[in-house]
Specification:
The protein has about 150 residues and is mainly α. It has two domains: about 30 residues; about 90 residues. Helix content is about 75%, strand content about 0%. The chain is built from six helices and no strands. The longest helix has about 35 residues. The protein is elongated, with a radius of gyration of 22 Å.
Length: about 150
């Protein structure tokens, strides 16, 4: 199905956004830029960027959560430390696969906020209030594949 005008493409977006994506890709590959539904294309690209940013933020929060549990929840350490370490390894791998300079800068700028969210979660999970108020880790430590795991 080839959509020949912008209005039909806009209608398609409301009915079946995946088919709209397929048609938009065809138009882009064919360099038929004048037929693009730019309004929805811009919205989709903005959403895609937000989703990617949210994903890296979420992965970093997971890493912080597990470091806090590993370092501060002494009562559960023997039972869970291998699980927490494995989770850190897995989340680091996923995050480092997605890392770009732009995402690194974003995470660096928002580390305090991400830490607060992680701290709130581990407090609720553990019932402890012994976690540091401020993030005790640098972003480079959190991303380094062996930092604190092998110590």
């Amino acid at each position: 199905m080839v959509v020949k005008n912008v209005d039909k493409l806009k209608e398609l977006y409301e009915i079946d956004d995946y088919l709209w994506i397929e048609e938009t890709v065809k138009l882009l590959k064919g360099k038929r830029f004048d037929e693009l539904d730019l309004e929805n294309l811009i919205e989709e690209l903005e959403d895609l960027g937000s989703e990617k940013r949210h994903k890296v933020e979420s992965l970093l929060e997971q890493i912080i959560r597990h470091f806090l549990l590993l370092e501060y929840w002494h009562y559960e350490y023997d039972r869970n430390y291998r699980h927490w370490q494995a989770e850190i390894v897995g989340f680091r791998t996923q995050l480092n696969r997605r890392m770009t300079t732009n995402f690194y800068n974003y995470l660096e700028k928002n580390l305090a906020k991400i830490y607060r969210q992680a701290r709130k979660y581990v407090q609720a999970k553990s019932g402890l209030d012994t976690f540091p108020q401020d993030c005790p880790y640098s972003l480079s430590q959190l991303l380094h594949e062996d930092w604190l795991i092998t110590n």
